[in-house]
Design a protein that fits this description.
Chain lengths: 323, 288
């Protein structure tokens, strides 16, 4: 930690967190808070996806499964068993991470494309399981009764509290990405991303590292999922495992620049602004997927480095400061 | 007991069509190491072409086959130039992402136009009765057509000059280039054939089951399972894999709710990949 604090990038992240926390709080601006809340969810999902996609070079098409399962575990614990919110969130994070480690040890024996295919399958399988799982309400889902907001000081105060927690989780995600990138573990992951065989020959324990990063990338999205669905007071399988959110996370990571910390945060913010514009515009509101698709295709075909790749090549000195 | 046997036979009939769908996927995969994530959507495109021709324009359902085949080929060549050409030889991650992006666009347009409503094409053919059980005529004809098209693909790959060029490129692209094979054109033709097969199998599936714009995901997963069972880049194996999957579905359906079928198939996919990394019916590499 001390090692990281000496670098300017640590304080850049701190500044971003402060802006997110203070901007809506100062003017008591609820509309701004809701927009930024969505941005925190995007940043959390995309930067944890980036641990797999950008560092280890493994594309996870089903990262949303962590978010959805975390939401289910948290909402179910709070609603059916009266567990305090903080404990439920922690349980969601640890539970989903443990499950991911278990899945990971299985599917991460598959390399490259096969891994990508099985991540799609995992999402389908979990969704089918939840739809048939009666304690979680099957395909109808779970509604939270308003009473659970009472310990948090009523609904209005609870929403602010949840927002600050979302910002905190986003900050943790950014620090986690940064800490991993500058660690030996991160170096091993980047080596896997470049050439897995060479990495293994040089002594990187590739199956272990892949399973660990898969599990790590599940922890914070699960907590965010818990917060998100607690906030909306309702969860059902088609929302919780909506593949379009995983898709957006991929678009964001590629837009900002895979493997960078700043880029992913920047990409998430830009995408959120773009999405807001598209949803309100007459022509595009039905064609949001089309726009995401075209954007992704153009990036993959012509700008595989994303925004940060562009910035690095234009201003090489920024590489020393921005990770 | 007799019911289970009937269910298994029906599973094999449907499995042949799954095998045909998987051939389209495995052909592209085997020749250029590109996994076509638009595969499921191309299957759905075949279904909607059938719907447009048969239910809207009133063409007899099975006469939709030639236009779907030709249209699918042209769409495939277009797909090659848009999303695949620049990705050949780059890390597999990139071609996965580029075909995924095209798929998003297609799904977006499809749901924008048709929503997620259920479509159905009525096919009336006399069935074949054995004892108390009747096998629908549509299932039998679809299986026969799938087998015939698979046979034609085999003849194309082994008896024609262009087909041999496809196999040569699959074996070794540089060497094929050196002996004067126009590899780029061959790759475009391969993607064309792969998408045409997906479209035709979609058209045949459309005569069997109702479908929506989003049906493709399930059939795409089935195609992957079949590919893994049959060995990668091996179209004949794909047909065998399809029959194996159909057998399994037929044997499982009487006992398990339908919503679990995909989960079972997916678990099978992972287990087979871990146990037989080259696929069960895998012959030597480049056996196309």
């Amino acid at each position: 930690m001390l090692r990281l604090m000496r670098r300017p990038f640590f304080w850049i992240i701190a500044l971003v967190i402060a802006v997110f926390a203070l901007a809506p709080a100062i003017g008591d601006d609820v509309e701004l808070r809701e927009r930024l809340a969505l941005a925190t969810v995007y940043i959390t999902l995309a930067s944890n996806l980036n641990l797999m996609l950008g560092y280890a070079g493994y594309v996870n098409f089903g990262s949303i499964v962590f978010f959805g399962l975390g939401g289910y575990i948290c909402v179910w614990l709070v609603n059916a068993h009266n567990v305090p919110l903080a404990a439920s969130l922690l349980a969601a994070g640890i539970g989903v991470s443990a499950l991911a480690l278990l899945f990971g040890l299985g599917i991460l024996r598959l390399r490259g494309a096969f891994f990508a295919l099985s991540t799609i399958g995992i999402n389908e399988a979990v969704q089918a399981f939840v739809q048939n799982f009666e304690p979680w309400g099957g395909s109808a889902g779970i509604y939270i009764s308003p009473a659970v907001f009472q310990p948090l000081g009523g609904a209005a105060r609870a929403l602010w509290l949840i927002y600050f927690m979302l910002v905190a989780v986003m900050g943790l995600s950014l620090y986690l990405s940064y800490a991993i990138k500058t660690s030996k573990f991160g170096l091993g992951l980047l080596a896997i991303g470049q050439n897995e065989d060479a990495a293994a020959v040089l002594g990187v324990p590739t199956p272990l590292y892949k399973a660990l990063v898969y599990s790590t990338s599940a922890f914070l999205p699960a907590i965010t999922g818990g917060l998100y669905f607690f906030k909306s007071a309702f969860i059902q399988p088609s929302d919780a495992f909506d593949l379009s959110l995983s898709t957006e996370a991929i678009v964001i990571a590629m837009l900002g620049g895979q493997g960078t910390v700043t880029g992913v945060a920047l990409g998430a913010y830009l995408y959120e602004e773009l999405r807001g514009y598209l949803l309100t515009s007459e022509t595009f509101s039905h064609f949001q997927l089309v726009v995401s698709g075209v954007l992704l295709l153009v990036i993959v075909l012509f700008f595989p480095g994303g925004l940060m790749g562009f910035i690095y090549s234009r201003f090489p000195r920024t590489q020393k400061v921005l990770e | 007991m007799l019911g289970i046997i009937a269910s298994i036979i029906d599973g094999v009939l449907v499995g042949l069509v799954y095998g045909l769908a998987a051939m389209g996927l495995t052909l592209i995969w085997g020749v250029m190491d590109v996994i076509n994530l638009t595969h499921g959507t191309m299957i759905v495109a075949g279904m909607f072409a059938l719907y447009g021709l048969a239910s809207v324009l009133g063409v007899p359902p099975y006469l939709a086959l030639p236009p779907v085949l030709i249209g699918g080929f042209l769409v495939g060549v277009l797909l090659y130039w848009v999303a695949v050409h620049r990705m050949v030889g780059r890390p597999p991650l990139m071609s996965l992402l580029s075909t995924f992006a095209v798929n998003l666009v297609l799904i977006g347009v499809g749901t924008g136009i048709w929503g997620t409503a259920l479509f159905n094409v009525a096919v009336s053919l006399p069935g074949v009765s054995i004892g108390r059980y009747t096998f629908p005529g549509a299932h039998i004809l679809a299986a026969v057509l799938a087998a015939v098209i698979a046979g034609l693909l085999y003849l194309f790959l082994h008896r024609t000059r262009l087909g041999k060029a496809v196999r040569a490129v699959a074996n070794n692209r540089e060497a094929a280039e050196l002996v004067g094979i126009p590899t780029t054109r061959v790759l475009a033709v391969t993607v064309g054939c792969g998408v045409a097969l997906a479209g035709v199998s979609g058209m045949l599936i459309g005569t069997l089951f109702p479908f929506t714009v989003l049906s493709g995901d399930g059939f795409q997963l089935k195609s992957f399972v079949v590919t893994v069972l049959g060995g990668f880049g091996n179209p004949v194996g794909a047909l065998l894999g399809g029959v194996a999957l159909g057998l399994l579905e037929g044997a499982v359906t009487p006992f398990v709710p339908v919503s679990w079928t995909l989960v079972i198939e997916f678990v099978l996919f992972v287990l087979v990949l871990i146990a037989f990394p080259g696929g069960i019916f895998a012959s030597r590499r480049g056996a196309l």
